[in-house]
Amino acid sequence: MNKNILKTGVQEFIDKYYNTDIMSVLLSKPAFDDISSKELAQQLSGKKKAKDKLPTWFRTPGIYYPPGINLEQTSSEITARYKARLVSGNKMADLTGGFGVDTFFFSEQIPDLIHCECDEELHQIAKHNAVALCQKQTDFLCADGMAFLQQTEKTFDWLFLDPGRRDAGKKKVFLLSECEPNVTLYLDLLLSKAERVMIKASPMLDLSAGIKELQHVRSIHVVAVENEVKEILWILQKGSAPEEISVKTVNLTKDREEKFDFKWQEEAVTDADFSPPLNYLYEPNSAILKAGAFKLIGNSMRIYKLHEQSHLYTSEQLVPFPGRVFKVEKVMPANKKHLGPLKGQKVNVTTRNFPMTVAQIRKKFSFKDGGDIYLFFTTDYLGKNIAIQCSKIIEEDSSK
């Protein structure tokens, strides 16, 4: 950690030029005698990434940014705020503290908090930024989180881990057993030290695999931001049984939260109702699709599924729905005879359970991208390939 970066003149430079081309900075003569071009580029790049991902850090003077790989894995501010709402009590430890984003928001809920980070530089950066952010009482330990847990006599209300998802060759991994630390080896230790444990996992992780590996799952939170799944949070509590697992899906947007909750085992024993496309078409958000609530979402909303594998839904009357909502304008066979009039026009194309990709469809029917026409290529409950022409309904209308 080069503290010369914190000098007023350097900070003013970073604030002014964070949008500059990073490669030009790396190839240019150092702008400051006591700061290398690489160090300055790291700060400029970090500031730029923080603008959308970490707005509190972006707005706060004197923030020191870590290498890009650390910023890549750190939680976004919006997901960190969500995690902080899940915890309560007096004592908590973040065993894989990293840049400290999650810890910062946990500190607003928990009065006695420990941040563990084994990388000396990252530890110093997180500790410095906590002061700049006026963070509430947090103990920063330069230590391996699991080693600390094995040695301490303390117990906690909550433990949090965000295992590293890159192997020795820097390749991305997503299975819990491939991450560092391998939390599956420490389950007994974790649950002997805390009432509850929260583990952040890759959005690529299959829920069934995670339940099998973690054994003591109490609940699962599938967290999407602007309809892109960002995190899967696993809440562990000793003695939890599979039939008790609750799955909570949330899609966080700028102006609202789309939520849908269910019991894990309910989906398997639920039967779906099917129908041809009616007046309205519904596409669940990505968190619901990741969670696999394909039949439950339809039944709970009292709407119909188009096909067992299509994961599109329909109804006569408009209902509030956690996802995209469309007015059905026309239903037709997915062939050139019926889609010919749209040739060359701007069309938004989506496929669900259809034998062609979006790119193949665009090429075959000569569609341009964009516009106000929405076409869903899918399979209906009779097994026929169809195209559904729609107009999008804004969120305010769908919630009436």
TrEMBL record:
What are the PG-1098 ferredoxin-like domain coordinates in residue numbering?
280-322
One family from Pfam that matches here is: PG_1098_Fer
Concerning InterPro entries, the annotation shows:
PG_1098_Fer (IPR054168), SAM-dependent_MTases_sf (IPR029063), Thump-like (IPR041497)
Q: Which residues form the THUMP-like domain?
A: 323-392
Protein name per Swiss-Prot or TrEMBL: Class I SAM-dependent methyltransferase
Where is the organism placed in the taxonomic lineage, from the top?
Bacteria, Pseudomonadati, Bacteroidota, Flavobacteriia, Flavobacteriales
